[in-house]
Amino acid sequence: MPRPAGTALLYVPEGVDPLTIFAGRSLVDRASALAVAAGLEPMVVDAAASGVATGAARGRGCPPGTPLPSDRATVLLMRCDVGCVAGTLRDLLAGPGPAAARADTGRIALARTTVRALDGRVPDDLEAAARGLPHVGRPGWLGARRIVDLASAASRDAPSAAVQRASAERELIATLDNPRDGFFDRVLNRRLSRPLSRTLLPFAVTPNQITIGGLVLALAGAVCLGLPGVAGPVLGALLLQLSAVLDCVDGEIARAKVLESEWGEWLDITSDTLIHVATFLGIAVHAWPELGRTTAWALGALFTVGGLVSFVVVTRAERTEDLWKGRAGWRARLLALLLATLTTRDLSVLVLVAAAANLLTPLLVGAAIGAQVFWMGALALHASVMRGPR
Known about the structure:
The structure is a single chain. This protein is an alpha/beta fold. The chain folds into two domains: 6-154, Spore Coat Polysaccharide Biosynthesis Protein SpsA, Chain A (Alpha-Beta Complex); 178-387, Four Helix Bundle (Hemerythrin (Met), subunit A). Helix content is 55%, strand content 11%. The chain contains 13 helices and twelve strands. The chain has a six-stranded mixed β-sheet with strand order 5-4-1-6-9-8. It is elongated. Mean pLDDT is 87; it is low at 53-58.
């Protein structure tokens, strides 16, 4: 496990119940998970005085005045009654220097500072420690990421706290898009996935379980795509479309519950590849009577090989994305566009339209050829941008 890049001081404000459940986790546990996901060591400030059982969080309790670790200069101060995602913390840490971000109420929610600025000790008040720091973003936002104040929703005495927490969860999930979402993701899949994600939040369901469920649905859809006629393939395409919605849900749940992981990312990419391959093998079976067994299976095999090679090329390009994405030049921009095209879920809508119009056979021919063009083009572009800007 990599060494923490800094320390996160998690404050439990007076009157806030740190064991309040938000997005499927207690506030203090969720704040600790956010800190760990951002590469920081969490420390719950004055946990004993706040009534927090330190075993409930991954961070150890510490009273104000506790010496800060001197080997980690960066310190992030965070209210535990704030609704945000790990990317918000990472964005603040990636900034050029000390700064503060505000929740939608205007109160300081996050602050990045240094051990030296804090005189080497845990301050007793977050807002006082952040006084004088430049504010980034507008209240309630850091870039495109939401920062929601949960103070009244986490109060022990507020009669409408549950309603306010549900509203805050809706606000948070509404901003959990993926930069690579396609057109139909934005206009269709996300509109269906967000209510489903909100429904699943209170339950002990993991993103990986949702990913596997989506894979099973898509494989059943691929079998239906292989049926003759129109009704069976349309049913298969609808199952594939539902799988695309679940592919949105798993990412939303992962970010909302702070359950993102390298294993989950690998499983998601692998699942997408298997779905693409299974889909066109199913279409190859459907095209068998029209094209003949040899031609249909040759096209299916051609797409399968292209899909698997594309998986390897895309995985390699994504793992080195930090090295090439910021480079100027059309090659880097085109490579980013190609990766976004492959990872978009718009394919499911294309299959649905082709199935309804009885055009699955032409789709198979185009996909078999297109897969080869894709991986060869992506491989050449990646090799070019890794050599340096042009």
